[in-house]
What we know:
Layout: E1 3-10, E2 13-14, E3 19-28, E4 34-42, E5 47-49, E6 69-77, E7 82-91, E8 95-96, E9 100-107
Antiparallel strand pairs: 1-3, 1-9, 2-8, 3-7, 4-6, 5-7
Amino acid sequence: ADLVLVKSAPFTSVEPGGVITYTLAYSNVGSVAAVHVTITETVPAHTTFLPTHSTFGWICPAGTHASNTCHFRIPQIAPHEGGILHYVVQVDRPIQSYSTLAVSVYLPDE
């Protein structure tokens, strides 16, 4: 399987109490199914993860505070299929950023 993950969160600044919604678009551009896929996110500094505002299914074993990791498990992604996840955090201190934060990750065949 060949997986592509694109993460974006358009914002310029967020005050305490505000939220940031990260969009994670994933797709299998390969010709075989990807099985037992896990997407991992680390709760950003000065934020708290909001599971009730995010895509249902995120698991945060150590809690929802900054620096903890959360996982989203996808049993299978068929060839040429994909989906979108939302990962929402609430800001504890003012945050400044670029107008768009985007990270692309390409995971080749194993």
